[in-house]
Amino acid sequence: MKRKVLFVCILLISAAVFAQEQAAAEAVSGTTYPDAVKYLAAALAVGLSCIAGGIAVARIGAAAMGAISENAELSGKALPYAGLAEGICLWGFLVALLILFL
Prior knowledge:
- The chain is an all-alpha fold.
- The protein is built from three helices and no strands.
- The chain has two domains: 1-31; 32-102, F1FO ATP Synthase (Up-down Bundle), CATH 1.20.20.10.
């Protein structure tokens, strides 16, 4: 619970710092606030989906290796599950592309 509270506090502080830096950058470069939010959203989409994909592949890979060590015939059934977990990263990348170009 303490980690969640700490994470939320860090997130709020970083959002406030980002807003201040964005206001200063907007005054200098002319980049609008919605453009900055769009780039931040795309970065979060890719970053969080890759982290989630890595966690999923780690857990599925460990379980698959344990199952294969007991029964070698399960190797063909375990491989698609790891591929599905890696697909999470691709969906995050596609969402980021849609955010940037639409």
